[in-house]
Amino acid sequence: MLLAVDCGNTNTVFAIYDGNTQIAHWRTSTEWQRTADQYYVWLSTLMNMRGIKADITDVIISSTVPRVVFNLRVLADRYFNTRPLVVGKPECLLPVDTRVDSGTTVGPDRLVNTVAGHAKYGGNLIVVDFGTATTFDVVADDGAYVGGVIAPGVNLSLEALHHAAAALPHVDISKPQKVIGTNTVTCMQSGVFWGYVGLVREICDRIKGEHGAPMQVISTGGLAPLFQQTAELFDAFEEDLTMQGLRIIHEYNKENGTTL
Ligand SMILES: Nc1ncnc2c1ncn2[C@@H]1O[C@H](COP(=O)(O)OP(=O)(O)O)[C@@H](O)[C@H]1O
Ligand SMILES: CC(C)(COP(=O)(O)O)[C@@H](O)C(=O)NCCC(=O)O
Ligand SMILES: [K+]
Fold first, then answer.
1. Would you say residue 79 lies in a domain?
2. Which pTM value belongs to this model?
3. Where do the annotations place substrate binding (predicted)?
């Protein structure tokens, strides 16, 4: 079985695959200090609760937080006796090209989203991932990652207002019924929610204009369901695009004989 780990700046998701089938997934907060032993206690408890036998033979990791990779490597080595594939490392092959400025780093989550988007929807895509940051990944006709956009995340924007202004409280995001807020909380929610709807629409329109071919827009990430209610922004919603991509990349490396 495969253990796939998608580590974002806020949350880390672990998923277990038996072949192409996802058997379970669990989410924990991202903390670079967490040790391999701590991960294992947490993971094995959840696996036992679901009656999943721990016959993990392979591990694949995508992490936007470089520091957590060390302990995840130890987890794979100590408890599953395997060397993990780490997306972004030279030994991890990708089934798509990356065409960006030389010497630049692309977030592994964006590469993984590109792979999954291409596998399911072909080329000419914009993948919008509502995570800690909101990323727009542009997938070319042939499935290559050719760049994109990084915008401050939805919760990050609300937190920034709260931290910078003494009278603005911590507010959870939700879709306000009206644009005109009648109290501080609904004013802030309106600014971020409707501001975000505008941001997504404008960025996608401009990407489509520059790209010069019709494109499909796919949404994913923790806060994507919130914007799914504004249906006209997206052609499709994928709950776990990054996980799907990790499974595909693992399979690709197996088929292409990567020995780890
Ligand atoms: N179901 C949810 N409801 C509300 N907020 C959520 C939900 N899931 C995730 N979030 C929040 O959305 C943001 C992005 O989450 P996530 O996609 O897990 O981020 P990342 O991949 O960057 O770690 C975080 O601020 C997180 O707290
Ligand atoms: C843009 C990101 C911070 C998004 O991370 P996330 O919101 O998933 O935690 C991450 O993809 C990253 O660190 N990227 C490196 C720079 C780049 O992709 O160009
Ligand atoms: K993201």
1. yes
2. 0.96
3. 107-110, 184
Is 109 catalytic? The answer is yes
Q: Which of 109, 172, 235, 240 is labelled catalytic?
A: 109
Helix residue spans in 84-223 (DSSP H): 108-121, 154-164, 184-211
Q: Which of 50, 46, 71 is closest to 59 using CA atoms?
A: 71
Tell me the pLDDT of the chain (260 aa) as tens digits.
999 999 999 999 999 999 999 999 999 999 999 999 999 999 999 999 999 987 999 999 999 999 999 999 999 999 999 999 999 999 999 999 999 999 999 999 999 999 999 999 999 999 999 999 999 999 999 999 999 999 999 999 999 999 999 999 999 999 998 999 999 999 999 999 999 999 999 999 999 999 999 999 999 999 999 998 776 899 999 999 999 999 999 999 999 976 56
* 69-80 and 36-49 helices, crossing angle to 10°: 60
- Domain match, 116 and 193 both: yes
CA distance 36 to 202: 43
**Domain membership of residue 207 as a residue range:** 108-244
Q: Are residues 63 and 113 in the same domain?
A: no
Q: Please indicate whether residue 155, judged by its CB atom, sits closer than 6 Å to ligand 1.
A: yes
For ligand 1, atom 14: residue with the closest CA: 131
Tell me, in angstroms, the distance from the centre of ligand 3 to residue 137's CA.
10
Question: What was the ipTM of the complex prediction?
Answer: 0.94
**Which ligand is closest in space to the CA of residue 63?**
2
- Of 100, 94, 99, the closest CA to residue 113 belongs to 94
On whether both 114 and 79 belong to a single domain, the answer is no
Residues 77 and 27 in one domain: yes
Check if 221 has its Cβ closer than 6 Å to any atom of ligand 1.
yes
